[in-house]
């Protein structure tokens, strides 16, 4: 079984913010594969289904971004999956242009507090992840204000296209593994 986790913050006030693109990709995957994501378990909203014949669990932690690792650790331990082979974390990245995707096998948190907490809770940085570009923070903007801000209409067009690419990239990860998915989607 694969666990695909989109990071974000729960609550209406955070819906549509840059920091919630992980939730948005998981929602797109759920729509693409007719998976209902409404079960509450392991401090997350989850849904079970199949992607091209492989069993998946989609999850959106409800712990707020900076404590995402609590939910991820609970899911990994309960379902006894190998984080290096059966986990995908999807999250926002301010160092990439809007709508860009970059998949990695492992690595540092790169300043992202949600990933930092997951690394702490799992005790390893060796898990696949998909970074979604949300654009660079404008000069003189506070980082928190930027990531909790919303996309412009033009940016939303780019993000809608990215959601389809993110869903496709997760499918390719499941079908072909992280190396092939990186070859196909890191551009």
How would you describe what is shown here?
Strands 2-3-4-1-5-7-6 form a seven-stranded mixed sheet, sandwiched between helices. It contains seven helices and seven strands; from the N terminus they run βαβββααββαβααα. The chain has a single domain (about 1-185), classed as Peptidyl-tRNA hydrolase (Rossmann fold, 3-Layer(aba) Sandwich). Strand 3 (about 45-50) and strand 4 form a beta hairpin. The longest helix is centred in the C-terminal third of the chain and has 24 residues, at about 155-175. It is α/β, with parallel strands linked by helices and about 190 residues long.
Task: Provide keyphrases for this structure.
7 strands, alpha/beta, seven-stranded mixed sheet, 7 helices, globular
Write the layout of secondary structure elements.
Blueprint: E1 2-6, H1 21-32, E2 39-41, E3 44-51, E4 54-61, H2 68-79, H3 83-86, E5 87-93, E6 101-104, H4 113-122, E7 129-133, H5 143-147, H6 153-176, H7 178-185
Parallel strand pairs: 1-4, 1-5, 5-7
Antiparallel strand pairs: 2-3, 3-4, 6-7
Give a short overview.
The protein has helices spanning 21-32, 68-79, 83-86, 113-122, 143-147, 153-176, 178-185, and strands at residues 2-6, 39-41, 44-51, 54-61, 87-93, 101-104, 129-133. With 187 residues, it is of the alpha/beta class. The chain has a single domain (2-185), classed as Peptidyl-tRNA hydrolase (Rossmann fold, 3-Layer(aba) Sandwich).
């Amino acid at each position: 079984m694969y666990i695909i986790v989109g990071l974000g913050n729960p609550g209406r006030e955070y819906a549509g913010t840059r920091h919630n693109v992980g939730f948005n990709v998981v929602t797109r995957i759920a729509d693409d594969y007719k998976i209902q994501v409404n079960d509450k378990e392991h401090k997350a909203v989850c849904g079970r289904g199949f992607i091209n014949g492989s069993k998946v669990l989609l999850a959106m932690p409800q712990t707020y971004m900076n404590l995402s690792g609590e939910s991820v650790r609970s899911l990994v331990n309960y379902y006894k999956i190998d984080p290096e082979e059966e986990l995908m974390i999807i999250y926002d990245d301010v160092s990439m242009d809007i709508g860009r995707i970059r998949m990695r096998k492992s690595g540092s948190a790169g300043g992202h507090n949600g990933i930092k907490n997951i690394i702490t809770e799992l005790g390893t940085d060796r898990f696949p992840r998909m970074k979604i570009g949300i654009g660079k923070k404008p000069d003189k903007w506070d980082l928190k204000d930027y990531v909790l801000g919303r996309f412009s209409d033009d940016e939303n067009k780019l993000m809608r296209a990215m959601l389809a690419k993110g869903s496709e990239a997760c499918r390719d990860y499941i079908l072909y593994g992280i190396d092939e998915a990186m070859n196909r989607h890191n551009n």
